[in-house]
Structures are given as structure tokens and as C-alpha cells.
Amino acid sequence: MSATFVPGALHSDASPIATHVTLGLLAGGLATRLGGRDKAWLERGGTPLVVALAQRFAPRVDAVLVSANRNQERYLSHGLRALHDRVSAIGPLGGLDALAAECRSPWLLTLPVDALDVPEDLLDALSQAASTSGAVAEDDDGVQPLVALWRCDDLREAAAAAIAAGDHAVHALQDRLGFARVRFAGARFGNLNTPADLAAAGIDAR
Fold first, then answer.
1. pLDDT for 139-152, tens place per residue?
2. How many structural domains does the chain have?
């Protein structure tokens, strides 16, 4: 199942799903191509990326959780709850597993911490299109598996099965769950993988 949305085009009342959601920010990567810099604390416009995303979505969600494997005290100093992966060295699936284990809402909206330009109507669009298990976003750069809305009960079970099977690909997990795919026409959510990406985003990482 797929749907296409033009950013800013939704004006109807939000889906009921969108009112029972925890935001899970994925900040557990090692950023090897950035010399190991912690992306969460890179600043854009004077505000750390993780803080900006948390503040942006806080009015719309029940709670905010962060998947992070370092700098725990720094998150606490900003009122954010950071979670270590329960299973190490399995990539983003480890973060999803940790977030799902602690999520107390029926639904979990996940975003990588370096998603710089997600549309204002992201949550509404995903919730309106979601299958019984969830939905994943697709921008002009392709499918973005970590920009997704998950039914937490299904994610807990599916993540456990994937970890046990040694299948750590997030897109494969979403395929098995029958995720709807939501195309955001004209959007690029962005990510930060190289020094050139930082420069293009106006981020000084010195």
C-alpha cells in the first residue's frame, strides 16, 4: 500500500493514531565518516540537533525517548531520557529494539537525529496512511526506513524475531510487517554522513 503527500497539503483533522505516539530519536550511530562526532550534539542555528527535534515534536507526542549509547548525562541535562541498546553491534535495529521496549504509547514515531528537514505534516501523513503495523516515509532520495511510524506491540515482537534470526535490516522488517509507504513529493529529509553534508547544512563541527 502506498500514498503520496505534498508537504504542507494536509489540513484535515489528525488521525486518532497521531494523538497516542511516543517520539523515538535514533542517535546511537558511531558516525565514523564524521570522525566519530556525536551527531546529536552538533548545533544548527545555535541549538543541538537532538534538542531541536525533541522541542519541535514535544507538543504532538506523549513522550520523547532517545536511542543513544554515549553522553547519557548530557541528555539528562536537557531533560531527555536516553536509552542504551539492549543488543550491541546490530545497527539501527538495536536502537529500535531499545525504544520499543520502553515505549508506553501504542505507537512510536522514529526519526534519525540528523533528519534536518522533515515536513510539518509528517506524523499526520504517516498515521493516516498506516497499515495495522505502521508506515514508512519516502522522500525524493528514496525510502527512509528510520522515518517511520510503528505499532509498538508489533515492533517489539518483530524486532525480537529479527534479532534472533540475525536479520538486522530495518527495511526487511518493515516489509514483513506490511508497512504502508508514504511518498513525500518534493521533500528531502536530509542526513549528515560526511563533512560536506555538515557544510551544506550550515553546521560548524570544529
1. 999 999 999 999 99
2. 1
